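Handout, section B. The chain below has 481 residues.
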Amino acid sequence: MNDTKATESALQKKTDVTITESHKFRADAPEVRSARPPVDPSELEFRNLRTDEFWRAIPAFADIDEETFLDSVWQMRNSVYGSDKLIETVKDIAPDDWLADAVEGFSQAPMAVRVTPYLLSLIDWSDPYNDPIRTQFIPVASRLTSDHPMLTLDSLNEQKDAPVPGLTHRYHDKALFLPLNTCPVYCRFCTRSYAIGVDTDTVEKVNLKVNPKRWEEAFEYIASRPELEDIVISGGDAFNLAFKHVENIGMRLLDIPHIKRLRFATKGPAVMPMKVLSDEKWFDALSRVVDEGRKRHKQVVVHTHFNNPNEITEITRRAMNRFFERGIIVRNQTVLQRGVNDSEETMKLLVKRLGEVNVHPYYVYQHDMVKGVEDLRTSLRRNLDIEKFVRGATAGFNTPMFIVDAPGGGGKRDAHSYEHYDTDTGISVYTAPSVKPGKFFMYFDPLHSLKEEVVQDWQDEKRREEMVQDALSAALAHVNR
């Protein structure tokens, strides 16, 4: 018994000493110890969103007050649609040489020009050539480069995989529904330049206009396929659907028992966030679909499309806060573009800024192989390098997946998952066992990223076939190793 008490006393004494010494250490310490140095203020730049009335720098909008500017109806009515209106709007602030360059660029573009006042006002008109927002929406002839000979207008084979017009069924349990062919803006790099917007000098569009009878065919097909669980409602852009159509389409799909997930795809929050702030009928219609889905234990979310940190302003935050308050999940799908977001630091800032406004960075796509915008494509190597840099910059769940949407209908593949990649020829080869087993899908780096002698090889049809066959043979050997 005495031994036990002695042991307990010794332990208590040791504990007391430890506690006393610990307190003494903290009291005497001049500062909190840290394993990391003080943060550089530049690391917090993602929190600094524009709060000024930036639109007043455009002469046409100089007298527009904030209330008017934040009205989505005003934004739509004053959107710059067509080359003549664009030139008229910016002629007093854009360099003369750039204006002439843009006029020539319009004639070669596969997409019509349509830009909201919001976006137009975010462009740095003192240096439009290098502005990342201008680059995405307004072509200039001097920056256009020759198309790769392997490019096509519908590079993802969406029409080939469409059992009925405007519905692509490629993945086993997911389908893409295209109820309309218009958007608040027209992106130069649109993967659906074969159908979206009006005809241009270079492209006669496939007809996917709003048509409830056409939609009925899609609903019937979806109902007939019990394996389908996930429907992406895109277009065009769900922002341009009338509120009654948003609700009708959403509810009609929720009524199909095997449909478990809906995604409304819209670039709207990036190009006209004021619709979320001012179009109560549209926003309430979407909210009702989300709420109804939740009651039925079905997920309804929004997928949006920010490409550059400059697109995210305090107006954006206010709009995203409304989604957040309604419990609506918003995910982002970025397209990797040369001169827009193809630097490590720019992509890191974009990812962090998306998280700042409660938008989940979901995908970063390798630019699709569409015609007429070869100047915007990057090599696959650029994608891989940026992904390596961004990973670890923030939480894993807020880190996007870097994806190649395999040309020819292979679907989305992790950029790193190629079976073969030759950085000299620029050919990467992917497989998609769960989508189209036994097939190979090739992505081709843009010509401007290749050595001159290889560019010449691509102009030679015989040499072109040899390079393709060599890549396929290497991929097959890798698969069978």
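Note. The radius of gyration is 26 Å. Compare this with the example in section A.
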